[in-house]
Write a structure and sequence with these properties.
The complex is a heterodimer of chains A (about 425) and B (about 230). Chain A has about 425 residues and is α+β, with helices and mostly antiparallel strands. Helices cover about 55% and strands about 15% of the residues of chain A. Chain A has 2 domains: about 190 residues, no CATH class; about 190 residues, no CATH class. In chain A, strands 2-3-8-5-7-6 form a 6-stranded mixed barrel. Chain A is elongated and about 105 Å long. In chain A, about 40% of the residues are buried. Chain B is an alpha/beta fold and about 230 residues long. Chain B has 7 helices and 10 strands. In chain B, the strands form 2 sheets. A 6-stranded mixed beta sheet of chain B has the order 6-7-8-3-9-10. In chain B, helix 3 packs across helix 4, helix 3 packs parallel to helix 5 and helix 4 packs across helix 5. Chain B is globular. The two termini of chain B are about 20 Å apart. The chains are: A alpha+beta (about 425), B alpha/beta (about 230). Chains A and B meet through helix 1, helix 12, helix 13 and helix 15 of A and helix 1, helix 2 and helix 3 of B. The structure holds adenosine-5'-diphosphate and magnesium ion. The site of magnesium ion has 3 residues of chain B, from helix 1.
């Protein structure tokens, strides 16, 4: 029986080929938009992530300063006792991470951790004669720093690895060098908060395209940084950690935070605006594409309804000859399904073509060359699935209406 | 009701409610024997078509009871009735209702493809047989909408016969045919009744046609008068 119903569906589809094509184009357009929008937004998010992770790690461990100990009275007597304390002083007994060896070892042992690097970060004044700029001097473990941040990719002059054997060398953000009128090989003077001053040599320039970093950051060998602070040979201020899947920081944090007596922070916690941005973009992409699919669904609904009104006599004849309600439903759902499947396949194709075209549009801001684009199978599969669902839902109501047609009322006229 | 009865109508009453309540069929009772060729006559508006739709099981909105081949059809589900029609009833409409997007052969084959008693190949052969009997074999692959009125009516008859139904009903099946074609259709109906024992119930305005058939049921204002 089924074969006959399919044959009837086929004849309906091909005899009104223009209507079929219009319905098909609707689905195709909806699905291609779904594919394109999601690919584009994912591309943008991925680029955002790549850019963001040139300056932040997945997990950051650092000394957050001592807890608020200014109201010791409250601690002893509870909140019902009023205390009036003025000009309380916070004294930080320990700066940086004390005894970093076991902490580093513990973190390295975690199965998800793929890279970690210690840092000695110092707030500093960069000076070149009268020019004076506030910024960060980052003492780094040259190899591990590169493993976490991939900084050697962003070098515009000099060689990242030169930092390893050059205790007098610094690598400057390109904009910072510009603002200080410094070039490769020039001297740069730094002044620490403790009024220690030292002169280094510019041995490299980098540009991450993250503005705040490029205009205020410089790298130094970690040992030189310790010397500058007169600190121990194991002194560190920050531990930067990367894990396999940057989205899955929560379980790692949950394991580390209780056993490490310092602040253990995920990039999501530190940069909620990044997460909010990427979530919002995803919502926009889904909203736009679902809207388009819905419009396409209405189109199909209308066309199917029209078809059924035109074919009402034929449906009545089929029923008079003994075709059941289910046969009629099958006939029209098959038509919707064919439109959905074909529209889905063509829509994925068109979506891919659109994605490739837009991906080639030049866009030279923030280190990009072209508009970003992601090519993920799941976007295509989901688009196909949604498209099929939309057509089936849109086709179901008219098909049911057709199956309920009473043959006598039509044939009697 | 004995084994020889093809169709039994018992006290069939039907109303139309639009534009106002109106009794079209006023308690009709009759039996038709197997292999009988019955003509249904009467003035226009006397309720012949309405009765035929009730007998064909398409119209279920009536009082009284109807049975065909000993099976009570009153009160059965729509899908069951559709299956019953498919197997046991061939219907020729007053206006030749073919499916215009299909060719002649497909139109004839469709009820048999639904019934699936035979393979598609056999069905095609049988459809050709029917078309040949009605002088249409050379039109088989034409679109149904390309045929003349008389040809379309004969295609509709070929379609009604495809499943070897035990009862063939026609609502003025020769209404659009010239006398030659009318004679052909009459001969076919008579042959089906005599040779294959199929029961024929057909509405007609053609006096000749009616008088040549086995029995006339004459109607007036929703009642049988003879
Ligand atoms: N769908 C309908 N609604 C209301 N009245 C109808 C309808 N169909 C037919 N009638 C009326 O029922 C009566 C019988 O009609 P019909 O069975 O078509 O007569 P016949 O076929 O004998 O000419 C007529 O008076 C006609 O006007
Ligand atoms: Mg009539």
């Amino acid at each position: 029986m089924a074969a006959t119903n399919y044959k009837i569906a086929y004849v309906h589809l091909t005899s009104k080929i223009r209507q079929t094509i219009v319905a098909l184009l609707g689905v195709m357009f909806g699905i291609s938009m779904y594919v394109f929008m999601n690919s584009f937004m994912t591309g943008v998010n991925d680029i955002q992530t790549v850019l963001a992770f040139t300056s932040i790690s997945h997990i950051h461990i650092y000394n957050d300063g001592p807890e608020d100990n200014t109201n010791l009275v409250k601690k002893a007597y509870g909140p019902e006792v009023l205390a009036n304390i003025r000009n309380a002083k916070v004294i930080q007994y320990i700066q940086g991470i004390k005894n970093p060896e076991p902490i580093t070892a513990l973190v390295r042992k975690q199965p998800d951790v793929i890279a970690l690097t210690p840092q000695v970060n110092i707030n500093i004044f960069f000076r070149n004669s009268a020019n004076k700029i506030n910024g960060t001097l980052s003492g780094v473990d040259v190899e591990n720093e590169n493993r976490v941040f991939n900084i050697s990719e962003y070098m515009v002059a000099g060689n990242w690895n030169d930092l390893k054997y050059n205790p007098e060398g610094v690598i400057l953000g390109a904009d910072l060098a510009d603002r200080l009128s410094l070039h490769m090989g020039d001297n740069i003077n730094v002044l620490t908060p403790d009024n220690v001053s030292k002169t280094y040599k510019v041995i490299g320039l980098f540009r991450t395209n993250v503005n705040g970093v490029d205009k205020s950051k410089a790298y130094l060998n970690i040992n030189s940084a310790r010397q500058l602070l007169s600190a121990n040979s194991d002194y560190i201020t920050d531990l930067q950690v990367n894990i396999k899947d940057f989205e899955k920081t929560a379980p790692v944090i949950a394991r580390l935070a209780p056993v490490i007596p310092y602040k253990v922070e995920s990039w999501q916690m530190a940069n909620q605006q990044l997460e909010a941005g990427s979530k919002l973009r995803n919502i926009i992409a889904v909203a736009v594409s679902l809207t388009i699919l819905m419009v396409a669904g209405f189109g199909i609904y209308n066309i199917m309804n029209m078809t059924i009104n035109e074919k009402i006599r034929e449906i009545a004849i089929l029923k008079a000859m003994g075709y059941s309600s289910r046969d009629i439903t099958t006939i029209f759902l098959t038509q919707a399904m064919v439109i959905g499947l074909a529209g889905g396949v063509f829509g994925m194709g068109l979506g891919y073509v659109l994605a490739v075209i837009v991906n080639h549009i030049p866009f030279k801001i923030g280190g990009l060359n072209n508009l970003p684009m992601a090519y993920r199978p799941q976007d295509y599969l989901l688009a196909f699935f949604f498209g099929l669902m939309t057509t089936l839902v849109a086709g179901f109501l008219p098909a049911r209406k057709a199956s309920k047609i009473d043959p006598v009322t039509i044939i009697r006229g | 009701m004995d084994n020889n009865t093809a169709l039994k109508a018992d006290n069939i009453v039907k109303y139309f409610y639009e534009p106002e309540k109106f009794q079209v069929l006023k308690g009709l009772s009759f039996e038709v024997k197997k292999g009988e060729f019955v003509s249904l006559t009467g003035k226009s508006g006397s309720g012949k078509s309405t009765l035929l739709y009730v007998l064909s099981t398409m119209d279920t909105d009536y009082e009284g009871s109807l049975s065909i081949n000993g099976e009570t059809l009153t009160g059965q589900s729509m899908n069951r009735l559709a299956a019953f029609r498919n197997q046991h009833i061939g219907f020729v409409f007053q206006f030749h209702y073919l499916l215009p997007e299909f060719n002649v052969l497909d139109n004839v084959m469709l009820p048999a493809l639904k019934l699936k008693r035979y393979s598609a190949k056999e069905i095609e052969a049988r459809a050709y047989d029917n078309l040949r009997m009605l002088g249409l074999e050379d039109q088989a692959l034409k679109a149904a909408s390309k045929l003349s009125g008389g040809q379309q009516q004969r295609v509709a008859i070929a379609r009604a016969l495809i499943n070897d139904p035990s009862v063939i009903m026609g609502d003025e099946p020769t209404g659009n045919l010239d006398s030659k074609n009318t004679a052909i259709v009459f001969d076919i109906f008579q042959k089906l009744a005599r040779e294959r024992g199929q029961t024929i119930i057909t509405v007609t305005h053609d006096e000749d046609f009616a008088h040549k058939s086995d029995r006339i049921i004459d109607m007036r204002d929703g009642e049988i008068i003879g």
